[in-house]
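About this split. The held-out portion is used to measure sequence recovery: a designer receives only the structure tokens and must propose an amino acid at every position. Recovery is the fraction of positions where the proposal matches the reference. Here is one held-out target exactly as it appears in the evaluation file.
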């Protein structure tokens, strides 16, 4: 067995990816693992950042509250005297603390004694109703600052540090508030540092995990890739190459099953080759026999057609002679006054004409089968064909008390067709309609369809059963068969019409409903 190299495996994998096939198991496993670790890393980073931010924010707020209370304790004298100079001394000490963006003192009436730093804090505290506030400490915030106000109390009590949100007592006098705006920049910077640290360490961990897991997966799946490469090679080349794979128990079992299948396919191929050789030899023998049989059948068919052509030709001469002699006898009988013989003589003439029509049909069919029938294209006007049709079918219509209607929707266009064959097809269709219709109507409708003329022969006769529509154009087949059929004929008229249409590259079709009549359609190229 030819060993499949690593480069062949890579080429096979690249070709599969180029063709839009699914990724390999190794890539899928690696993708799932990396995606899972990445999601866990993101969730871990979010959780750590949130917890660290919450803890750090709490520490910063606590520190800001202590600074604010310290400023309130140092501002008693400044609020008692309402001296800006004393206020500046206390505020200078507070402004030295980190993250203090602004600080100030305000009286109970809302008068700002002094403000240092960012004006945003001063504007935030400007509209407060200070005289209505009964808490030691109030706090608010926005996206950039914490705003903290601590009440400045004149009292002999030493419990101020513990009264964060309790109401003032009766022996306490509120002088005003110490207000401070603390910036959140430190908290934002700490959060950014945490996120960057987690992202950096997480990326290093993911890369290391990809290398370690990828190497482990490669070692585990290398036998499976070798087996897959052998399968692909066998599929593309049609060979039955064995797979020599060593790996985990499951993969070795797969390889053994694959090798057993390849061995079975080798045996089947050998059996099929032997069977094919045997069949080819038999086919050659049968082919030679069929060729001999075909040649004999063609020769017999040709001889049959020639015999029918000659025989019908010989039969036409005496029939025409009979018709001629009957006409002479009829004239002599009329001259001699024997008028009672006319009915019998007319019967002889009708039966002779009928026999002559049958002989002509057989003659036409034999010519078609012998390949002697040719298409004779000539320029002819449409009205000439319709006039010939009316003239030829006039004696046939009254036989069953039918009415002939011509529904022409075309102008008198000039066509290049085989007039005789088209006329013969239409006569056959009208004659067939008259035979199966009694006390009804036979309509010939003419329409132009692009480069074709469509003739529809419509009757109100007995119709054709649905299960016999496919047989109407077959030779010697009629709608009714057997001894009980009520209608005569040889069953060749429609078959000859179909043959003529095929010769002229025309199309003939039929639609019918039993009991409601039939419609035969002929589409002739002009």
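Reference sequence for scoring:
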């Amino acid at each position: 067995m030819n060993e499949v190299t690593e480069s062949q495996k890579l080429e096979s994998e690249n070709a599969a990816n180029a063709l839009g096939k699914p990724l390999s198991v190794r890539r899928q496993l690696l993708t799932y693992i990396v995606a899972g670790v990445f999601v866990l890393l993101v969730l871990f980073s979010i959780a750590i950042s949130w917890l660290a931010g919450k803890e750090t924010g709490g520490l910063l707020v606590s520190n800001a509250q202590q600074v604010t209370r310290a400023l309130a304790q140092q501002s008693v004298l400044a609020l008692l005297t309402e001296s800006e100079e004393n206020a500046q001394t206390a505020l200078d000490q507070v402004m030295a603390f980190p993250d203090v963006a602004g600080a100030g003192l305000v009286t109970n009436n809302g008068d700002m004694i002094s403000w240092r730093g960012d004006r945003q804090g001063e504007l935030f505290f400007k509209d407060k109703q200070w005289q209505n506030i009964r808490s030691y400490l109030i706090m608010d915030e926005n996206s950039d600052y914490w705003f903290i106000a601590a009440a400045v109390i004149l009292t002999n009590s030493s419990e101020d540090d513990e009264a964060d949100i309790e109401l003032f007592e009766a022996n306490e006098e509120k002088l005003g508030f110490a207000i401070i705006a603390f910036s959140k920049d430190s908290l934002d910077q700490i959060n950014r540092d945490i996120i960057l640290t987690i992202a950096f360490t997480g990326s290093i961990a993911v890369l290391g995990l990809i290398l370690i897991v990828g190497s482990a997966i490669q070692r585990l799946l290398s036998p499976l890739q070798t087996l897959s490469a052998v399968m692909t090679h066998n599929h593309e080349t049609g060979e039955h190459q064995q797979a020599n794979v060593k790996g985990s128990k499951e993969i070795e079992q797969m390889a053994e099953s694959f090798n057993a299948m390849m061995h079975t396919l080798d045996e089947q191929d050998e059996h099929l080759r032997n069977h094919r050789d045997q069949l080819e030899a038999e086919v050659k023998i049968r082919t030679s026999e069929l060729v001999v049989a075909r040649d004999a059948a063609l020769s017999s068919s040709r001889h049959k057609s020639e015999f029918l052509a000659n025989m019908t030709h010989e039969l036409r001469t005496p029939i025409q002679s009979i018709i001629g002699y009957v006409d002479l006898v009829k004239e002599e009988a009329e001259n001699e006054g024997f008028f009672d013989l006319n009915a019998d003589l007319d019967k002889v003439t009708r039966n002779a004409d009928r026999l002559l029509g049958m002989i002509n049909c057989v003659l036409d069919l034999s010519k078609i089968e012998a390949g002697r029938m040719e298409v004779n294209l000539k320029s002819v006007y449409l009205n000439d064909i319709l006039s010939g049709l009316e003239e030829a079918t006039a004696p046939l219509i009254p036989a069953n008390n039918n009415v002939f209607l011509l529904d022409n929707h075309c102008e008198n266009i000039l066509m290049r067709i085989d007039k005789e064959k088209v006329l013969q097809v239409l006569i056959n269709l009208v004659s067939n309609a008259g035979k199966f219709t009694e006390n009804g109507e036979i309509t010939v409708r003419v329409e132009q369809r692009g480069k074709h003329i469509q003739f529809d022969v419509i009757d109100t006769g007995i119709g054709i059963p649905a299960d016999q529509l496919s047989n109407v154009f077959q030779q010697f087949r009629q709608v009714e068969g057997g001894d009980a059929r009520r209608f005569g004929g040889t069953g060749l008229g429609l078959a000859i019409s179909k043959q003529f249409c095929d010769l002229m590259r025309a199309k003939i079709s039929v639609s019918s409903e039993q009991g409601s009549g039939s419609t035969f359609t002929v589409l002739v190229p002009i």
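Annotator remark: Residues 1-7, 15-19, 156-166 have pLDDT under 50 and may be disordered.
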